[in-house]
Amino acid sequence: MRRLLPLLSAGLLAGCTGWQSALAPRGPVADDLHGLFWLFTITCALVWLAVMLVLLAALLRRPPDGKARQERAMQHSARAIGGAVAATVVIVAGLTVASFLATRSISAHAEDALVIRLRGYQWWWEATYADPRPDQNFITANEIHVPTGRLVRIELAAADVIHSFWVPNLSGKQDMIPGRANSLAFTARKPGTYRAQCAEFCGLQHAHMALHVVAEPPEAFERWRTAQVAEAARPHGPEEDEGRRILESKACGACHTVRGTQAAGNLGPDLTHVGSRQFIAAGMLPTTRGSLAAWVADPQSIKPGSNMPMVPLTADELQAVSAYLTRLR
Amino acid sequence: MKPWHAAFLTLLLLAGCKREQRQYRLDPAIAESLDRVEVLPVGINGRPPRVITITGDPYRTNAYQLSQGKRLYAGFNCQGCHADGGGGTGPALMNGWWRYGPDAVSIFLSIRDGRPNGMPAFRDRMTPEQIWQLTGYIQSLGATRASGAAPSRNDAMQTRPAENRAPAMSRLPSPYEGGP
Amino acid sequence: MTAALKDRDLRDTALEEKLLHARLAHTWRTPPGLIGFFTTVDHKRIAVRYIITAFAFLFLGGILAMLMRWQLSRPEAGLIGPDLYNQIFTIHGSTMMFLFAVPVMEAVGVLLVPLMLGTRNIAFPRLNAFSYWIYLAGGLVLWVAFVLDMGPDVGWFAYVPLSGPQYSPGKRVDIWAQMITFTEIAALAISVEIVVTVLKQRAPGMRLDRIPLFVWASFVTSLVVILAMPAIVLASTMLILDRLVGTHFYNPSEGGDALLWQHLFWFFGHPEVYIIFLPATGMISSMLPTFVRRPVFGYLALVLAMVSIGLLSFGLWVHHMFTTGLPRVGESFFTASSMAIAVPAGVQIFCWLATIWLGRPVWRVPFLFILAFFFTFVLGGLTGVMVASVPLDTQVHDTYFVVAHFHYVLVGGAVFPLLAAITYWFPKMTGRMMSERLGRWSVALLFLGFNFTFFPMHILGLQGMPRRIYTYQMDLPWGGMNLFVSLCSIALALGFALFAFNAIRSTRSGEAAGDNPWGAATLEWATSSPPPPYNFARIPVVSSANPIWDQGQSLPVASGLSVNRRELLVTTTADAEPEVRETSPGNSIWPFLSAIATTIMLVGSIFTPWAVVWGSIPVAIGLIGWFWPRGTPEDDS
């Protein structure tokens, strides 16, 4: 069984993929890390196996009889230990060099990198797409889009406590620390949605602080970007009108911004295009009208301790608000 | 377990029971009743909802609720007028002078319904629970005695001693610092 | 004759064997009942008490671990909410590190070091008693707070600003920080005692190259404790000041730094791992010869490896901070140093392998635990090499991979040797053997349960599961493996329960053990089981590293100590030649009273800084009583 365990696990490793997995690299940085991981794993597995085999042999072996033979066995052992220590030094030095080379190759720079400023809040993410043209700037939350094949640099900051940004499929993690500026660069090779999750313990809802990275072809990315720069969609029909009125007049607008309306709060995520995102509440629920209504109706049951209060709304008001939020695509 | 240990434990249990319990979600009925303040006809003062007394006055004694109040104080930009309690466009909140009285209900009413000469109403911007949290925090700003539950300093530039180091100011304000 | 017996300076040379034992028993006795319980300074009684308390905390911490596994066994299980879960994992970590692992390792040192050195009590025995009471108070503070729903909830590492004044309201973090202070005082006290005992109280003839390896390990560990603990004393004091008095040590807006905490914490926190691991290696080095029937191979190499691990452990702390964005050059240095510690660790493994290679194994329970140690610790050490690499660490840091790694190192590397040690030295302390049959079952359950519980966590981490999450969502592919892990953890828990059952039952009904049931070589087996309060009626004289094997069960002895005073023999540091006779302090209630006074002061300072001022008065009274001159000569040449 002891032997079987590594084999079994290797099988599991080979078979698994996931949209938040270091074992399914989808970009050059993650590729390098993945290669390094297997280099280390195989080396370490061989070392472990060698030690176990020697241990087994030592247990099964009959110790030598007679003083002269014992003396000789001790001399052999001393030499073997010397050799093993030398081998350890060589292996450790080799792995250090490999690790150092990998660090160099993944810290790539490019002039035309797309820069996204990401700010961690207790328990959501605010993303700012800074553009030299002021009218092309916009802020969004909990979902970022990146063009495939282009280097993306994420500038990391924290608004309250330490968070850590980690998209395992694309790159390693980097902490967001109050009072410090960190950054991280990666390129997505193929279109797809990759999940990122806060990796540094940040309080009550640390478990539900996810961000989705949507990689899409450059044209699709430009379309998305243009749509995001635009103001919020106008309500259609009386129900959505009512929803917008409630959003502006009730407590919602005190914390959330919907560009193009009177809702201009800055305590919670920007909701201008909340309907276009795949998930709400930092990866908690898929965006549907039902889940939006459930979230607004009782956020503390879904994410206990989060800073979204339960705003008293009637059933009709809830209907209207969820209809309007779904419209904000 | 020695009898001495048992006695010590019991004492601690009695002293600290539920001291730091954190209530994240209020039952909707309770949340609604938090808004039921019996206001005197003059509109200055009144009687707090009974549910607050029944639940042990959490907005004044519970550290978590007070810290939520402190978060709201910054989030709703109370500093804009009151600074960090020292006052500016609006009156100071930590010099012991209260235009409408020092009790929780009058502070609650000031926030919820607003007051003449510039204090806006936050009725539609905050939930009643949040207003109570903010009320509790503002009371701790003007407290004359240090409290174990009051928040400590912020991770920001220091503009005043931490709330748990009250009294932040002398009981007697100078004549230039506002007042009644 | 009676008059002669009352003579203060009666020497053991003047008495025959039977009378000598009676006199010594009288001089070194602990009064019966409660008075004795609170006043004793016998290192064995205190150490056993320490060990039992530490295992009680292991049991409590284990319950918390099982609760966490229950919650994580399926996605979005609503069994434990985030607030309680955060308290649970914080207290699990803090209990296991501060209230179980470090104290139990030090306690085994307190128990064995004087016995292995052939002396009658540890140096500063009253400090030893004080240390236990302070440790107990620290543990109670943490657990009482948890029961009252105000347990700390920021992780055993308590990173600021989350643990700072703004984001952790209430007294939860203060309780954690003060618990740290309690355990630091306790650990520092023991370390000082062990260092002095090892340097000055060795049996005549026990030169530096004849010191048992466990004693070397305890000695190096104690030096590491003395050098590492001040960092955390400083860090936690600054945290309390930030929270209580409003200082700005960790406030970036006022010139403080959030990363300062991490540097200070890990400057202590990484050596902490070796504080736990080094005594375990010492246990193995001391037990292994008994079970392969030959002296350990490479004594000098093992000692040097331990010393270099102790030194290197101070140069690795940054590998806990590889994702904080420190400068590249610094990170590369710490990669190299973190990997370099694999070399001395490897030397130890190779020497033990050679020892087994040259010897003839005896398949008893402690030896089986040692084999389980090899299997798991080598694996954990190798994943340690993986997390030492900066780029790899950016993927696995703060994931379940790291959870798996350090449980392999701490459970495989320290708890398995500890359980071996308990089984091995159990007859010495109780006079009875632990059941071999139950022991084998518990080895099997612990070994299989442990590996099946923790090995899959490596994979979970690589699949992206972060640490310290109270739940995970349905759309993440972690459910199946988490369920498997949770189920296997039951086997692990059963293994611990069986071990505890075996130990408790064997104290009453175990097979009687002689003085040296395993046929071991070191001095603790030269006295009776359990040893008398004075350990050795006459101090043995040593002329080899394996005295019993080379000199026989009845060793030559040194004599001339007074029997009417608690006298010890103090020897020179390098060659252990007799220097002076020193009087060891007798029983006293003052350490206990001083510990209560200190507890009141430290707990009070959670609530008001003035407690430090007023609380220092009872502490001063306690210390004055403790050190009140007794009018006995301290030592004689």
Concise description?
Chain A has 9 helices and 12 strands.
Explain the overall architecture.
The complex is a heterotrimer of chains A (329), B (180) and C (637). Chain A is 43% helix and 18% strand. Chain A has 329 residues and is α+β, with helices and mostly antiparallel strands. In chain A, the strands form four sheets. In chain A, strands 3-2-1-5-8 form a five-stranded mixed beta sheet. Helices cover 39% and strands 2% of the residues of chain B. The N and C termini of chain B lie far apart (59 Å). In chain B, α5 packs across α8 and α7 crosses α8. Chain B has 180 residues and is an all-alpha fold. Chain B is built from eight helices and two strands. By secondary structure, chain C is an all-alpha fold. Chain C is 65% helix and 3% strand. Chain C has 20 helices and five strands. In chain C, the strands form two sheets. Chain C has a three-stranded antiparallel beta sheet, with no helix packed on it. In chain C, strands 1-2 form a two-stranded antiparallel ribbon. The radius of gyration of chain C is 25 Å and the shape is globular. The two termini of chain C are 26 Å apart. Chains in contact: A-B, A-C, B-C. Chain B binds chain C through residues 9, 12-13, 16-22, 24, 63-64, 66-67, 70, 146, 148-149, 151-158, 161-162, 164-165, and chain C through 83, 140, 144-145, 147-150, 161, 164-166, 169-172, 242-246, 248, 250-254, 607-608. Chain C: The chain crosses the membrane at residues 47-68, 88-117, 129-148, 175-199, 211-240, 260-284, 296-318, 338-358, 365-388, 400-426, 438-460, 480-501, 613-629. Chain C: Pathway: Energy metabolism; oxidative phosphorylation. Chain C: It catalyses: 4 Fe(II)-[cytochrome c] + O2 + 8 H(+)(in) = 4 Fe(III)-[cytochrome c] + 2 H2O + 4 H(+)(out).
Q: What is the helix/strand order of chain B?
A: HHEEHHHHHH
Identify low-pLDDT runs of chain C: none
Structural class of chain C comes to mainly alpha
Within CATH, the superfamily of the domain at 51-152 and 162-171 in chain B carries the name Cytochrome c-like domain
Strand content of chain B: under 5%
Number of helices of chain C: 20
Strand arrangement, major sheet of chain B: 1-2
Helix content of chain C: 55-70%
How many β strands of chain B by DSSP?
2
Low-confidence parts of chain B, pLDDT < 50 over ≥5 residues? 170-175
**Through-space gap between termini of chain C:** 26 Å
Report the top-level CATH class of chain C.
Mainly Alpha
Name the average pLDDT of chain B: 82
Radius of gyration of chain B: 18 Å
> And the CATH topology of chain C?
Cytochrome C Oxidase, Chain A
Number of strands of chain C: 5
Order of adjacent strands in the largest pleated sheet of chain C: 3-4-5
Strand-residue proportion of chain C? under 5%
